[in-house]
């Protein structure tokens, strides 16, 4: 008998009776042994969400073929993957490197289950950091602000995504707005980190804005990228409490830590197939 392999199934569909029973039946027919299971019913939208980690001696192609009829019958959005396969990740960065450095450290110490296949930037600042981790660095310069130059740069970026068969794009303080076309191409597989609780303190000098308002909490938000700037479905948020004694630079230092934590968790949960889209929101099975 073949040694069982580990798989992850995640799905969402219109809610109704018998979903768990039907899914379990398909797995049982292929000697599937459930290792963990989580589910959620959204009563407002009558939608059901589920994530199952299981082992089975069947191969991935056979399992997908067996599950497809049930998925069609129940009108499921679903994904079935080999749990051992790491997501291929492209990191985009500009001139703030704290999130990039944090991600690379977590990967190097095997605390983040991804494979960083490339780093791309509109600046050269972090090519040495990339080299120290043996990761290819791509400099896609923006020599001007014209629409033509922006489109040319984005075409190179899109080609890199295709060439490297990228599963997930991480905007680790990448200070460029992606076009609606690229956002559509990357729907559900591009994560951005925002330096506040959305939608507060957008634009330049956010921590100076926070200082002027006398905030008591510093926050960061990791969310999926959409064509609506900083309005994508939220995956994770992190906060740190501060007080009147913090100046703008101290707020920024605290903010960098919250950004790293929120982004790392969002990447991990996405890579472990724990995040399901629910319209403008997400369901996260931690």
Keyword list:
30% strand; 8 helices; seven-stranded mixed β-sheet; 13 strands; alpha/beta; four-stranded antiparallel β-sheet; 286 residues
Walk me through this protein's architecture.
With 286 residues, the protein is of the alpha/beta class. Strand 8 (168-171), helix 6 (180-185) and strand 9 (190-194) form a beta-alpha-beta unit. The chain contains eight helices and 13 strands. The strands form three sheets. It has a seven-stranded mixed sheet. Strands 2-3-1-4 form a four-stranded antiparallel sheet, covered by helices on one side. Strands 12-13 form a two-stranded antiparallel ribbon. Helix 3 (98-108) crosses helix 8 (248-271). The mean pLDDT is 93. 34% of the residues lie in helices and 30% in strands. It has helices at residues 19-29, 60-73, 98-108, 127-132, 147-163, 180-185, 206-213, 248-271; strands at 5-14, 33-42, 47-56, 77-82, 87-93, 114-121, 137-139, 168-171, 190-194, 217-224, 234-241, 275-278, 281-284.
General form: globular
| Largest β-sheet summary | 7 strands, mixed
Order of helices and strands: EHEEHEEHEHEHEHEHEEHEE
Termini, distance in Å?
33 Å
Percent of residues in β-strands: 25-35%
Strand order of the largest sheet: 7-6-5-8-9-10-11
How helical, in percent, are the residues? 25-40%
Low-confidence spans: pLDDT under 50, at least 5 residues?
A: none
Question: How many runs of DSSP E, i.e. beta strands?
Answer: 13
Number of helices: 8
User: Given the helix and strand composition, which structural class is it?
Assistant: alpha/beta
The residue-averaged pLDDT reads 93
